[in-house]
TrEMBL record:
<dbReference type="Pfam" id="PF17200">
    <property type="entry name" value="sCache_2"/>
</dbReference>
<keyword id="KW-1003">Cell membrane</keyword>
<keyword id="KW-1133">Transmembrane helix</keyword>
<keyword id="KW-0812">Transmembrane</keyword>
<feature type="domain" description="Single Cache">
    <location>
        <begin position="34"/>
        <end position="128"/>
    </location>
</feature>
<protein>
    <submittedName>
        <fullName>Chemotaxis protein</fullName>
    </submittedName>
</protein>
<dbReference type="GO" id="GO:0005886">
    <property type="term" value="C:plasma membrane"/>
</dbReference>
<keyword id="KW-0472">Membrane</keyword>
<dbReference type="InterPro" id="IPR033480">
    <property type="entry name" value="sCache_2"/>
</dbReference>
<feature type="transmembrane region" description="Helical">
    <location>
        <begin position="12"/>
        <end position="32"/>
    </location>
</feature>
Length: 192
């Protein structure tokens, strides 16, 4: 009987060891996939923001050519960016040198208000961080911070890419929530 118990314990230890190995491999795979997806999403921000820069520059050129007044050119640029946000569910933001928020889908209630002192849950002054990255490009325009994820006010980790349009003093950019990345990976892994 003691040999039977000993065999049971050995089988349980083997099963427990295999379970831990499976959990370890699954966790490693998840983290590997997660890092790759985060890198892909982060890199995808740049071309979209370069497109927004081209759009803004186009309206600036129409102003220089005399087709539009400065106010018309700026408003039409903001209107088009707002449409892009609505159609594609993007997180494009625009604010100026005075930290007046001109466009933000996530923070629509703050539009046309000063956001210079807005902070995340860690006390980081968000728009000052985004401004510094856009103007001085210390991290190539990328910023990491926490931001409101949904209407209930919870803050989630976000990575943004921002650029600066000097003629108008505009900072514009877009971000991706890490929670969105995790949800898409989990969905991908559980659907197979």
């Amino acid at each position: 009987m003691s040999k039977a118990i000993s065999l049971e314990k050995k089988l349980l230890l083997i099963a427990a060891g295999l379970s831990l190995l499976f959990i370890g491999l699954s966790t490693s795979y998840f983290l590997y996939v997660r890092n790759n997806v985060i890198d892909q999403r982060r890199c995808a921000l740049e071309p979209r923001i370069h497109f927004i820069g081209t759009l803004i520059n186009g309206y600036y050129q129409r102003y220089l050519d005399g087709d539009l007044s400065l106010a018309q050119a700026q408003q039409q640029a903001i209107d088009e960016i707002h449409q892009i946000n609505q159609v594609n569910e993007n997180y494009i933001f625009v604010f100026n040198d005075d930290y007046l928020l001109l466009e933000s889908v996530n923070n629509a209630t703050m539009r046309n208000q000063n956001v210079k002192e807005d902070r995340d849950i860690n006390g980081v002054k968000l728009y000052q961080l985004l401004y510094n990255e856009a103007v001085y490009r210390q991290n190539e325009g990328y910023s990491h911070y926490f931001y409101h994820f949904n209407a209930d006010g919870t803050e989630q980790k976000k990575i943004s890419y921002s650029q600066y349009f000097k003629p108008w003093g505009w900072v514009y950019g877009e971000g991706v929530y890490i929670l969105d990345v995790d949800a898409s990976i989990l969905n991908m892994m559980t659907s197979h």
